[in-house]
Amino acid sequence: MWSHDSRDHDGADAETIAGRCGADRVRGGDVILLHEGQVQTVAALRLLVPRLRDAGFELVTMAGLR
After folding, report:
1. Under 8 Å between Cβ of 23 and 57
2. What is the DSSP letter of 5?
3. How far apart are CA 39 and CA 54, in angstroms?
4. R_g of the chain computed on alpha carbons
5. For residue 61, how many C-alpha atoms fall within 13 Å in the half-sphere facing its CB?
6. How far apart are CA 23 and CA 47, in angstroms?
7. pTM of the prediction?
């Protein structure tokens, strides 16, 4: 299950999506829901991943949680 919904499917731009999942909104252990096939999701990830890593988060896939 996911614990944080990015709402990346609602037509928001990349910056808005990244802001919804920013380091100030998520906590360690959260699972962020993102959808494949969304152009704005890919752009949001280009913003979000470095920001979360800079904040000290380690990003893993669901398979990596096993």
Report:
1. yes
2. E
3. 24
4. 11
5. 2
6. 12
7. 0.86
